[in-house]
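[Meeting: bench + compute handoff]

Bench side (C.D.) handed over the final construct sequence. Compute side (W.E.) agreed to return the predicted structure before the next meeting so the bench team could plan truncations. Sequence as handed over:
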Amino acid sequence: MPDALFQGCGTALITPFRPDTSLDEAALRRLAQFQIAQGIDFLVPGGTTGESVTLSTAEHLRIVSIVLEEARRAPRRVPVLAGAGGNNTQAVTELARQVRDLGVDGILSVSPAYNKPTQAGLIAHYTQIASAVAPLPVIVYNVPGRTAGNIEPATLARLAQIPNLIGVKEASGSVVQMGDVLAAAPPGFLVLSGDDPLTLPLIALGGHGLISVASNEIPGPMAEMVRCARNNNWQRARELHFHYLPLLQANFLESNPIPVKAAMARLGFCDEIYRLPMTPIGDANRQKLYAVLDRLGLAPRTAAAV
């Protein structure tokens, strides 16, 4: 059976910053508490939605530690899948070891950007990372639109032979590729959607869930949608999908996490602060995003509602 810890809906958490761009620990704790209270299945701190490429190692580890603390003190223990990825294999390996030592339940590692390694290079990269943290579970993150390189289904089938490399967050944007991955991978290999709007097609093909951007804003509905689909309640799953589809799309009016962070600021969870080279959402797209939030009854509100 696939690893039960990371099935369902997990949230790729944003990283709240203060106006001086330092880490806003209080806001991060509120966000984690909100997620847990709303029924999310697992949490993903320190990933690319969390602006990981602009974090120092100390900040990265602090973020993961805070989320772990909140997950452990909650009445319902929530697994933590921590981000540890990049394009320097040795540096990623060391970060993965440090994250492992904090006590996380697994690691999500995005494929190298810019380097454009061959498929053989990707296999060597992930083999080193997984071996360094074994037996801790590792999930690969394939997002060609941001990395300029695709992890091919045959490569994932090879990587799936590594005992603790248990799955992939598949964000190729292609339902065909998602199907090819499911066909090529051995039984028990997790295939999670990395694209909110493609979650239901993936689950229909046999996928195991979602690592979501939109669940920052709406963790309860996203978790329910995935749960319904996995339990074959497709009518309710489709209702939720189509109801919230405008938000799933609005979250990508500009590069992630710009829109979702703007939305979370409007909902009262954090300040709308980014680290360069990320900048605030443009005026026209802000109006579109806010209009979607208003139509869905999501704005304004405060974190006190948690």
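W.E. noted at the follow-up: The first strand starts at residue 8 and ends at 12. C.D. will use this when planning the next construct.
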